[in-house]
Amino acid sequence: MKKIKYLFTVLILSVLLVNLYQNYIYYLIPYNPLEDITDNPYSCHFTLNYSNGGITNASYNLNTNTLIFKYFSDLNLIPLKEETNKEEIFEHESDINFSYRFRFRPPKPSTHYYITIDEIWLDNLSVLFIRSNKPGFHDGYYKIIDSKFDYKYVNDLINTSQK
Prior knowledge:
By secondary structure, the protein is α+β, with helices and mostly antiparallel strands. It has helices at 2-23, 62-73, 86-90, 151-161; strands at residues 41-50, 53-59, 77-79, 97-104, 113-121, 127-132, 140-144.
């Protein structure tokens, strides 16, 4: 009987610790999901979205795409919990936002995957949404904790690669 109580107590404590990590501790640890990507992007599509349309540019220059992706992967990010940060994530004064889509082709020619970084609003350049179709990738909202997103630098890289 004591053995069953002990196992039950250990099971309950394990569930509580996992819950504590998933709902609280995970959101306190800086983490950039792009740091784990070792492939170089062979294309980068940039979109400047307005309420009545948008402007799209693309870069197929490997060096430029690598620089842009390195900029994103070097950002110091922390995951945001949607439920507790709704105001920061969803309420915006401006209707202008940026999105970037990187396409990767790993060594296997039949496989490719995308990473999309979007919902970078002009009035809040420190929050972004990162998602991918790569298995195991951590989709979600992230906040830049030591600076703001420098869209001019990234857009200049794309524009100069097209000349």
